[in-house]
Amino acid sequence: MAIPKPSLVLCSVLTFLTLNYGPCHVFAKVYMVVMEDDPVVSYKAGRKNEMRGEEAQKYKEMSTSKHDVFLESFLPTGSYKKLYSYTHLLNGFAVHAKSEKAARILSGAKGVRLIQEDIKMAKMTTYTPKYIGASGVWPQLGGAENSGDGIVIGMIDTGIDPKNPSFGSFSDQAKPPPPNFKGMCRSGDRFPPDSCNGKIVGARWFARAGQASGEFNATLHFASPYDPDGHGSHTASTAAGNFHTPVISRGYNFGYASGMAPGARLAIYKAAYPFGGYMSDVIAAVDQAVEDGVDVISLSMAPSSVSSGPASFLNLLETQLLLATKAGVSVVQAVGNGGPDASSIVSFSPWITSVAASTTDRKYNKSITTGNGLVFSCGGLSPPTPGETMYPLALADDVSIANTTDESNGCQDPKVFIRSLVQGKVIICMIVSSNYYQYDTYAGMIDTIQKIGAAGVVITDRYTGDIDYEYQPIFPTAVPSAMVLSGVDMMNLIEYYENNTARDGDGGVITFGATVRILEGRRASYSGERPEVAGYSSRGPNIENSQMELADVLKPNVMAPGHHIWGAWSPTSDALPEIRGESFAVLSGTSMSTPHVAGVVALIKQRYPRWSPAMIMSAIMTTADVTDRSGRPLMARRDVGAVVAATPFDMGAGAINVARALDPGLVFDAGYREYLQFLCAVPGVDEAAVRRAVGASCPTSRARWCTDLNTPSVTVARLVGSRRVERRVYSVGGENETYMAYVRAPDGVAVRVSPDEFTIAPGGAAALRIVLNTTAPGNAFSFGEVVLRGDKKHSVRIPLAVYPAAVLGP
């Protein structure tokens, strides 16, 4: 058997998609090398199918040994350290070398297919199951505790806190893992052997690249699957946290949390840390997760930037996720937090379900009332000031030592306050707008107020600008606190204060006459409002160049709640110092929306275990909501306070609707061969590039356009004249059903569907032809839809995104 060979792949930085991310400047000389040899999943001895059991283990050991021999034959002893052997999805290894010369030697070695330098990675509920309809389908799946039973969700993240109540054992007697899952539980610091308790069925950690870089500190980062950051625990609880778990923070019960699939099991693959992580560790985690037998992979990670050109589809992580899909594993990935800018999508691959983030209708209504009867709406999760008493109001500047207040860091230092003047008062702390969205600044104010013994704090903008509710920090506080959000309210509050404050000739305060009361702010209300695309959620179209060659894929695929989401947290985490010691936290980002969809995938997989990843994605997309209950279109947030009608580049196919996704009527399907055809149709991609990336040649029957991929959407980046798009649907309904096609054409485009009416039997298939013609060229994408409405109440929606570029001449 020939020893494998690596080739050069596009390098792209990955990042955790939380709201807290930053640039990384440190990188290890780690290289990921892919060999020509087959991995376990594609090696066939003679005419046998995929290897399993003892045969697969022997092949894995043989491949690992070959990697060792290969390195020994090309690199001097002591000049490198092999970190991983990849054997399941890829055949290759990660190596930490002391010089860049090693990369040149390896790239020219016989048997190497592809080589890529390692990439630094950085970090990017109580109600949402009901909001998206998940809890409504639990009775159909055996009740909440059984919803997702038999399904394993692989969480590739920062680990998990096994002591969090969201992950407690189902009962006194732990259930065994599903029979197809072969993973294991690696114990370690803060992760004892009994951590895998039936809810958690597998746990591993990957940090060899982090260790090689010198950034991994076992004391801080834990040499175990334990989560030192909190991010991994939060996403895991959203996907599959236990049913009806009390959410208690700062001594207050905020409700009862459930994951989307409370009965699903969790397999934990810790591959990132508070300092970030490395792609080689993530590659190892994905490889192991698929080998272990997970059904779903949840990745709240994605490239933070993607270079223009066709190679975007061929970076090492994207192609490995294609191989995971080939193995039958559904991959759900965050779409990015680069919104509201257009073309901020970080991953284009059509085999991945990419998730945008939306708001929900849950609000925490906080307000303050003044002595003259003014009431101001505010933000903040805090208790009220005690009793019915009105408390004296004091501006921080007026109760501080002269000339010590820094406008960019107000109320951050307890030593500048005059203790005798702050006792029993509510302090107004001012801050510049640019710091409103920084957790540590807000937390510093709360900490200061607590230390100086004031009755509470009201936070306002020194320059009276509006504060976008979407971006304000939100976390429970023990101190009564309120953040004034409206610039007008800020001006009125300060005017009230000045009109009721007596000063001497030097401006010093003689008497504090203004009073205020902070009201309760921890009780949620539910307005029934439709979801809106969060302003930070990344947007399409999926292009990075003026020719728009890569936009024939719709991204995001779907939208799910991602804003102000309650989830499990690690009490040892320093990521958010203001909630250190707490077991639950409120976070926002596409990191939070992703596990919502991963949990829904688990529910669908439980109901339809034989469905392919493409069929599951199709069911989610074609049944998504694009209007609210009254028929009004969903909206997308742009700049502060601005909302516009959402397009497929904002929300994909729409807001996820779980009940309909479990009964879609028709589905679209695609497999590995179709994805290869897609790759081979990408402009600028040649067969050699595909061969280097995935180890397979282009199929004999070549697709002409990327739009030929059988997806539940149609995106044409440059429609010149006419384009014929073929689609094939499969019936998953329980009886014969007749469908009629209804078209809402994009502006400047004529759309014809044939047949426009067809009857399909259970398990049957039907071919559709959608012909698009430019009628009025424009300078932007326009949007429409094809809706297939069945006489048994099914409705299958296919989004259209078309750029009508030109009309063909006579």
Short key terms for the protein model shown above:
Glucose Oxidase, domain 1; Rossmann fold; alpha/beta; seven-stranded mixed barrel; seven-stranded parallel beta sheet; 27% strand
Architecture blueprint of SSEs:
Blueprint: E1 14-16, E2 30-35, H1 53-74, E3 80-86, E4 92-97, H2 101-107, E5 112-117, E6 120-122, H3 128-131, H4 134-137, E7 152-157, E8 200-205, H5 208-213, H6 218-221, H7 231-240, E9 245-249, E10 252-257, E11 265-270, E12 272-273, E13 276-278, H8 279-292, E14 296-299, E15 301-303, H9 316-326, E16 330-334, E17 353-358, E18 362-364, E19 366-370, E20 375-379, E21 391-395, H10 419-422, E22 426-431, H11 439-452, E23 456-461, E24 481-484, H12 487-499, E25 501-503, E26 509-512, E27 515-518, E28 524-526, E29 532-533, E30 558-561, E31 565-568, E32 584-587, H13 590-607, H14 613-622, E33 635-637, E34 643-645, H15 648-651, H16 658-661, E35 666-668, H17 672-681, H18 687-694, E36 714-720, E37 722-731, E38 737-744, E39 749-754, E40 757-760, E41 765-774, E42 782-790, E43 795-806
Parallel strand pairs: 1-6, 7-11, 7-14, 8-11, 14-16, 16-17, 17-30, 21-22, 22-23, 23-24, 29-33, 36-43
Antiparallel strand pairs: 1-15, 2-4, 2-5, 3-4, 6-13, 9-10, 12-13, 18-28, 19-20, 19-27, 20-24, 21-27, 25-26, 31-32, 33-34, 35-37, 37-41, 38-40, 38-42, 39-41, 42-43
